[in-house]
Structures are given as C-alpha cells and as structure tokens.
Amino acid sequence: MSNRLIGSSVLVGGAAALSLLASGVVAQEAGSPSAAQGEAAPKADPAAVNARQNRTDDQAVAGFLNRQRERQARREAALSRRGNAADQQELRRLYRALNIPRPNPRAQISAANQSALAESFETDSIQLLQSLNFKPARIRRLSDAGLNPLQAAAAYTRGTATVTEYALLSDVVAVARVVEVRNERLGDGFRSTVLLEITDSILGRAPNRPIALRQRSGEDENGQTLRVTSDLQAVDGQSYLVMLSAGLYEQLATEGAGNPAASAQGAARNYVQLGPTYLVQGDTLTPVDTGEVSPTTLSQLKATLAPVARARNTADDAAPAQETVR
C-alpha cells in the first residue's frame, strides 16, 4: 500500500490569499542594452517603471479575483441546495453596518480592483456565516449579548482569528477522547472518520453520544493512503481539544460530492474541524498544527471562553420556538 502526503485544503478561500500581493510584484526591466565600457548606464524612466508595476499588480489581482468568483459561485450553488442562500442581502447589510476594515494590500492596483477585492472579502465572510448556519436573527441576538460573529467571520477570512473568535463560530468546543479511527467513504467527499467521545464540553451543545470528525485523509478508491496535512492525526485513546462545525461539514460535502452523509438515529453526528486542535495532557494544551499559539493551560482556555459560552447560551435560549439553533 502506498502513502501520499497532500497539502491542506482551504475550507474557506478568502482574503488571506492576498498575502501574495503583500510585497507587490517586482517589475523587471527587460531588453535594456548594456552600457558600453566607460559610459553611464541609462536610467529607467520612473514613470514608465511605475506604470509597468501597476499593470503587473493589476493583472495578478485580476487573476486572483477570477479564481475567487469561481469559488464563490460554487459555494453559492451549494448554499442554495442547502436552503441557506436566502439571507445573503440581510447579512451583507449587517456586515456593512459594522464598517469592518477592508483588506489593504501593499501592491499598486487600480481603484476598481481595490473595490473588487473589498467586495470579494465581504462575500467570503458572509458565505462563511451562511455555511455555518448563522441566521440574521441569531446574529442580532448574539450582538445583543456582546458577541460579534460578523467580526469573527471577517477575522477568520483574513486569517487572523483568535481562539475566542474560532470558538464563537464553532458548533462545539470540547475535550474529546478518540474512540476509533476508520477509513470510511460515505459519498460525501471525505475518506475517514475519527469517532470522538466528549469528556468535557466547553462551549456549544454537543450531543449526548459520540460525534464523528470527518476527514479528507484516508484510503482512496485505489487503496492509496492520502494524508492531508491539516487533518488531525488522531491516536486511539488520546484526548484533544477540538473546535468543530456541523454546518461547515454539510457545506463542504455539498460543494464537493453533493451528498452529505445523513446521521442515522442514534448514530454519531458528522463534523469537520473549524478552529485549531490541541493535544490535552492533564491541564496542558499542546498545539497540533505547527505555528499555532497555544493557550497556557486548559483551565485558562476554559476561563477565557466561559463568558462567551454563557452569552451564547443566553442568546440561543432566546430563540423563538420555530427557529432551530444548531
């Protein structure tokens, strides 16, 4: 059996990708004749160099925006199939009312592309909230309780979300013990399941039964083992702090295979990772992914998230009977 390591898939492609423009694109002078010995090299016209630089940066931005539009169209189609597309205009209105800072790449680009980048960033943030099953009424209740999922979504899209912002967007934040890891193709685009037993629920309303973390890693149809770098390399019996989303699972499965796996009655509900994952050893938290900043201890993290959990429970408890809060 062969093994193959593949890069992590981007859950929500967003303005974090603008880092490719952070330093601009260096325009190179091409085809300049070399100076004869003893002659001073001719100086390039600064205006001409700037003009070429701006054209190059605009071309890079245009390519990025085209790819973003394709991704957003696929998300929009999946959101429509899930029945989650109707609230976009109201979410956009709420988002714009906050005056969230726009992305500001250092590249020299046109005003039209600057505006298009800001709109693309906004769309990514709104589509994230729709993917996570956030409705306008719930966002208002959370806002009244002092929480800001719109700002959290923007930070997630920008790639600067804090642990608290990840937690606010997650359905479940908990310490969970690995019960089983199995290769399992369910027609949802994922290849394996990590079955988790929650031992300490920190935020959200986790079901009173094991939950299933669906992952891209696992055996493909040819028996080749694929490992996605961002997936949890779970060890049986080990405990992890996890931040999970059922809504994002449904979105990714709908976008990819078009067929989220239904959980039979009494079976584990399906989730995917939304926020960072930590190995739990007593009160010590060790980040699983390189580069993550770990909270000092589990008790510290629980203290940090306690007011968020209380405010979110208060907001969700105030939901009308006809509105399902997941």
Task: Give the topology.
Elements: E1 3-6, H1 46-82, H2 88-97, H3 111-131, H4 136-144, H5 149-158, H6 163-169, E2 172-183, E3 192-203, E4 211-215, E5 218-219, E6 225-228, E7 239-245, H7 246-256, E8 269-273, E9 278-281, E10 284-287, H8 298-317
Parallel strand pairs: 1-6, 4-8
Antiparallel strand pairs: 2-3, 2-7, 3-4, 5-6, 7-8, 7-9, 9-10
Distance between the termini: 40 Å
- The helical percent reads 25-40%
- Structural class, by secondary structure, is alpha+beta
Total E-strand runs: 10
* Topology order in helix (H) and strand (E) letters: EHHHHHHEEEEEEHEEEH
Average pLDDT over all residues = 82
In what range is the share of β-strand residues?
15-25%
Rg, Cα atoms, Å: 23 Å
Described by strand count, sense and barrel closure, the largest sheet is: 5 strands, mixed, barrel
Count up the helices.
8
Overall 3D geometry? Answer: globular
Poorly predicted sequence stretches spanning 5 or more consecutive residues: 9-42
Strand order of the largest sheet: 2-3-4-8-7
Number of domains: 2
